[in-house]
Amino acid sequence: MARRALKLASFATVAVATTGFYLYSNKPLDPNDFGVVRVGRAVATTAVITYDYLTSLRNVPRGTEEYEYVKSQVHLRSAERLRDLCCANRGTFIKVGQHLGALDYLLPEEYTHTLKVLHSQAPQSSMQEIEQVIREDLGKEIKELFVSFEDTPLGAASLAQVHKAVLRDGRTVAVKVQHPKVQAQSAKDILLMEVLLLAVKQIFPDFEFMWLAEEAKKNLPLELDFLNEGRNAEKVAQMLKRFDFLKVPKIYWDLSTRRVLFMEFMEGGQVNDKAYMERNGINVNELSRNLGKLYSEMIFVNGFVHCDPHPGNVLVRKCPTTCKTHIILLDHGLYQTLTDSFRLDYCRLWQALIKADMKRVKKYSQRLGAGDLYPLFACMLTARSWESVNRGIDRLPVTAKEDVEIRTNAAAYLPQINTLLNNIPRQMLLLLKTNDLLRGIESALQTRASASSFLNMSRCCIRADSMYQRSKTDSLYRKAQISLSEALGLWQISLYELFLRLKGSQLGNWVSAFLSWMHHCS
User: Fold this and answer.
1) Which intervals hold domain Protein kinase (predicted)?
2) Mapping DSSP to helix (H, G, I), strand (E, B) and coil, where does residue 225 land?
3) Are 203 and 193 within 8 A, CB to CB?
4) How many whole angstroms separate alpha carbon 162 and alpha carbon 150?
């Protein structure tokens, strides 16, 4: 009854607001233009979800199979309602929903699986709206700027959409145009989310999701400034120029504004499209290694991290002339700049995780705010079980059984996970999201069992630590010592990598078979 009343109230609000505007202006308008409609819809959805959790689990004994089944069904219904709210309110809501959908191993699977569709269900602005934004920002009509402009966007995201076009001078460009209403609605939407999250916390004290609203409040203004995105693109292209396989579209500054970004047009297949890789003869293991190199360099060495590597933002193509595989990195609106102290603690934590040095895992986890929850923190970072962390994450391949165990534990430890997310530095939140998106790509390419990503991370950690130590001493002798230790560490990793390659090769199989035969004969 309560749910039905809330739905009727929401629908009535929409109807009254829309009808009132129509009578006033003799022209229909999207109900989302009215704050009361967006607020009413969000409040109604939050109330229905809260009511469902309170009533559905009230009389079911905890710890029973029935309880787990009912809880899973409530998770699923709530996730679907949340998804529908995001699709209806659009803009900021879709952006936050996408963030939640990327938090694999942090949220119950019912939520992440349901909300992942928001990456492909972002709304499109009409051509009239696109023309309006271009006219307002550039002072010209589309026909004055372009020889051709494709009406159907190449892709639509929560904040903008991208069109392929040809300029008057013959350049083929990708034009990113912001949805016209996002700028005005975003601040109000974030305030609404804060209020609703606080209200839910009053009912469920263990519910700790304020970090989500805080992150949105900090990052959205940066993402809505396309000039900032252009600067990020140029910075990362310069920073990673030593990687010849990385391509970042060139920015055309003479035409770009805060809401319209002109870029060099580049095309390729999405990084998780394994069928595309097979059709184009792209080695998925090499691709996965190179992607790991990029992100290890960004995180551990430079401390400037592209934090939205979902498949639509990472394209792959095979160069027809050199036959080399290129990684095209798009959408540079969301970056995280890491402080040196955080970056080095994070770097040393990963070194400890790779070496299965539990004493140092505890030390650096606690320095990063994990406190007594450091085992849970280690599992969240690696997406591995505590047993695998103790035995060495580069020694044991990921299994389907372990994945199920992690997801089950994520649901069981949700209050502790939320406490942890509220205690760790804000810099860590986007890194967790980035880790999960990269793992999703590895899972799609079926390369998660490879140890290469950990080897690349180890190299970057050694380099970053050595660079920091050299910067802290004036002694030439000490600098030489540090450089020698760095070279030795990198050599050991290369030697281990060679061993792994030989072990997996035909020669390695022959040697193993021969040794086994010798052992049998003796």
Assistant:
1) 148-460
2) coil
3) no
4) 10
pLDDT attached to residue 36: 82
pLDDT in tens, 138-156: 999 999 999 999 999 998 8
247 - beta bridge partners? 328
Helix (H, G, I), strand (E, B), or coil: what is residue 59? coil
Residue 261's DSSP bridge partners are 176
Do the strands 260-264 and 246-247 form a parallel or antiparallel pair, or are they unpaired?
unpaired
Residue type, 166: V
Residues 6+ apart with CB under 8 A from 344: 464, 465, 468
Catalytic residue (one of 308, 331, 345, 403): 308
Q: How far apart are CA 374 and CA 173, in angstroms?
A: 48
DSSP 140: S
Q: List the structure tokens of 147.
A: 């020889």
Cβ–Cβ under 8 Å, residues 338 and 307: no
Three-state DSSP string of 8-33? HHHHHHHHHHHHHHHHHHCCCCCHHH
DSSP string covering 279-339, please? HTT--HHHHHHHHHHHHHIIIIII-EEE----GGGEEEEE-TTT--EEEEE---S-EEEPP
Residue 338 DSSP label: P
pLDDT tens column, 378-416:
988 888 888 888 887 766 667 777 777 777 776 677 778
CA distance 336 to 427: 7
pTM above 0.85, yes or no: no
Evaluate whether 459 touches 292 at the Cβ level (below 8 Å).
Answer: no
Q: Is 308 a catalytic residue?
A: yes
3 versus 448: the higher-pLDDT residue is: 448
For residue 314, give both structure tokens.
Answer: 């990472």
C-alpha torsion sign, points 154, 120, 398, 381: positive
The helix-helix angle for 374-382 and 358-367 (nearest 10°) equals: 100
Asked if residue 411 lies in contact with residue 103, where contact means CB atoms within 8 angstroms, the answer is no
Confidence of residue 28 (pLDDT cuts 50, 70, 90): very low
